[in-house]
Each structure stands twice: as structure tokens, then as C-alpha cells.
Give the backbone structure.
Amino acid sequence: MNHCRWNLLPPAPDKRLVNSSGFPPLIAQLLYNRGLTEPSQLEPFITADKRLSGDPSLLPDMHLAVARIYRALLSGENIAIYGDFDADGITATALLVQGLSSLGGKVIPYIPHRLTEGYGLKTAALENLHRQGISLVITVDCGITALAEVKRATRLGLDIIVTDHHTPLPEIPPAIAIVNPKRADSSYPFSELTGAGVAIKLLQALFQGIGKEEQLDELMDLAALGTVADMAPLSGENRYLVKQGLKLINAAPRLGIREIISQTELSIGSLDAESISWIIAPRLNAAGRLAHAMTSYKLLMTNSPQEARELAIWLEQKNAERQRLTTKVLTKAREQILAQGISPLLIASDRDYPVGIAGLVAGRLSEEFYRPAIVVRTGELVSSGSCRSISEFNIILALNQCSSLLSQFGGHSQAAGFTLPTKNLTHLKQHLSQLAAEQLAGVDLRPQLDIDAEVTLPELSGDTFQIIQQLAPFGRGNPAPTFLSRRTDVVDCHTMGSNREHLRLKLKQGGIVWDGVGFRLGNYLAEISSYLDIVYNLEIDRWGGVERLRLNILDFAPAPPAPTTPT
């Protein structure tokens, strides 16, 4: 049996894409699978140039935000950029501090401490900023639900501009301006910008007004880092931001990113979106998970080679500590889940679960069992939880239905967080479990693998991989193309990794032998047979400084016996 549901996408019904694009039929099929149904859409998608960039003035309240910031710049006001402690918030904070400073602004960053302050705008922090002489606070990647906090700041005489990308509540804060593409009244053509994406649109509007829009180019690396790190869909304008940012990172990375690259196996010139999501972003996030995110902010902003090296080494150590802690907590949470019995909603809670890695553990549980998962750190009076979900269950809507039990909550359809009085935790578990049981009744709770095309391995030789790369950057919303090949001959197979959790295979078809790796498929070694049907991506293996093409195997199933020909 397949470990996932295999969904082979239907062939493109219209041959115009093949005939007009100049691409081979396989590439035209990949474009069709990504929602490109008209020949006129192909070239802008491939080029991913400024045509994908929207007019910033179409974002709600942009003119109000720009007018207030110009006033602050002209009168020399003290401005604070209030960010979030994840990579999107850190990069968005750096974007606005660097951008407004280049316009002569007197700007300071403020990023709350995850463990002692928690997510979002906090009244105590705003009061402290006011005492320091700050008169304008611009939020990034937070603030859209901070009704009470913005009201309190307004009474103090502190002006707030909210820039955010999270889903608003029915009532929005009484700020000077609220720039958010997810506002119901937004006419902006692309709603999936991240915190860093909204921040760069604000700067674009400011720079356009004084004829300095070209200065935006040197900040594209930060927009790309935040967009990929936040797992935003790499479609529409996000394709432009990430493609431009990757060009800058590969050509002239800022000092801090250069040092992260030198601490890892990455090499300048060949970084892609996966390099950010798997290598760079976890290190930027490590500071906020285990200590204070300001370390990562300083790394992005420093002009000192010595400081960049020291901060990058510290982050590398913190990331290694984060990995060890994640493994330890995951083992304990997994045991807890299995002891309770697998239900439609997985909930693990303990007083010793660190807040900073709860989301990572929830994500791993959700991935393994394909169910929404919540990991809660329980306190005597207050508890906090991180949620990760599946496409069939909208976790933020579920939390919304339990809002009377919660002190604070926010997030997206598949990732969210909350705090609540510990006395409400049992009721919350019951309510959410009931919602999940109702909504997931009858659902095949195995992850779905969308397969772009069925091919033979020889069809992927030659320059096919290079042509596919024109569809990059790949990520959520524009996944790396996934293929199905039937009856591949297993030449060799063994486990690898410190816990033997991965598979390494040699597969043969049509006289060609391919190397393949199945990450986290080591538990299925006993299911390997002489012939396999495999679902996979193509990827470059850069082990030992040598580049080789290999199969990244996502799932497999024993191939049925070959049909016998009648004699």
C-alpha cells in the first residue's frame, strides 16, 4: 500500500500551451499544473520580473502610512519598528530599519522576547518605547489583532502604523494606518505577501514618492529570506521578490548571510529557495526559539566582519542545540500521542515543553501522522500552544470558534499559536477534538502527493532538469515537479543516517541507473521489493563538492508483477 495518497494530475486538455510555448510537452504540462492555462501567462511566470509586482498604493491605508512616515522623517521624530521573533519578522524589521535609515530616519528596532514577552504588540513594551521618546511605532508581521494595545498606545499619544499579513479579526485596531493585503477591503491583486513582503511594499511607496525606487534593489535579499522562511506560496509577486532576492544573495550576500554560508555546506552562487528554507532560515530562527531574536537581527545588519563571524558561530551552536532539543521533545510528545491513541486531532502537553520549539514538534507530528497537531507548554496559571495542521482542517478557524477560552491567538490556516488560562485547557482540548472529529470524519488521513506526470527514468535524462529549473524558485504554491515511474528495478537498497532513518537506493530503468534517497523512509526498508513504483523529485546532490543528479524519493510501493504475454 502507498504511504500517501497518489494523485496523478490530469493531462492538459488544451494543446495551445505546448504549441505556443516552445517548451517540450512535459514542461508545458508542469506549467498547466501550476494554474497557467493561457499562453500569455507563461512568459511572465518564467521571467518572474517586475510585471508580477503590484502597485503599492493599492494596499489599504498605504497613503495614510506614507504621509505619516514622511512627517516623522521631516520633523526628525524617533521611530520604532516593532517586529516578530521569527525569520519573517526579523527580516521585515531589518528591512524597515535599513530602508528608513537610508532616508535619514531616526529608527530603532524592537523585537519582543519569545519566552518573557510572547508574540505581538505588548502594552508594557509600547509604554517603555514612549518613555524613550518614541512617537511613531511601525509594526511588521504583527499587530493586526492588537485592539486593546493600540487603543492604549493612542491614549498615551503614541502613533501606531500596523503592517501585517495575518488574517484580521472582524474589528481592526484604531491605528493611524493598517497596511495588510488580507483586509476585506483590500484591492491589492496579491494577498499572500509575508511580513517582509508588506514591509518592502511600504518602502517601495516611500521611495517612489521621492524618486529613489532603485534603492529597493539592495533590500531584496531580506524580502526573499522572509518570504521563503515563512513558507509563503511562491506564486504571483512572491516569485518576483524571491527571484530578485536570490540573485542578490548569490552575487553579493550581506556580511551576516555570507558568514552563515561559510559555516554550512552552502556555496555562494548556487543558493536557491531550498537553501533558505532548510539551512539559512532555521539558523535565523534559532535565536528567537532559544534566546533573543535580536542576535539574528544584528547578524543581518552588521557591517563588521568580526561581529558577523562571532554571531554566525553563536547561531550555528544555537541551531545545533535546537535540533537536539527538538529530537528529545519529539520523542516524548510522540510517546504521549501513541499512549493516548491516534485520534483526528493530536494534542501533547507538558510543563517542560519549551515554547520555542513547540511549533517544530507539532509540525513533525502533523507530518508523520497526517493530522492537526498541537503541542502545549502547561504552566500553573497560563499555558501556551503551537498548532500545525493539514489542508483538510483550518486550525485558525477552529481556534476562532474557541476564542472565549483563549487569552490570545493568531496565525494561518495551517499554523497558529495561542495562550490561555490553564484552567481552560481541558475544555479547549474537548472542543477542538470535537471539531476535528466532525470535519475529518470519512477523510483518508494520509498525505496527498500531487504527481505532475508519469514518466520513465530515461525520459528525464539530457537537459530536462535544466529546463525544469526555469520554473524555479520552488516552494509552497510552486512545488518542485513530482514524477511517477513504474516498475523501476531495485539494484541496491540500504538505510543510512545516524538512526538509520533514511533509505539510499540504486534504481535502473531502460539501461540507465539512478541514485535515489528516501528521507525518513528508513522504517519501510522491509517493504522494498525487486521492482518499485516510485514518486520523486529530481535534485542536485552536492556531496563532496561534486554535483550529481539524483532522485529524491517521496514515496514508493511494490510494483505489481509484470503482465505475462500469452504463448
User: Anything to note?
Assistant: The mean pLDDT is 92. The first strand starts at residue 5 and ends at 8. The two ends are 31 Å apart (CA to CA).
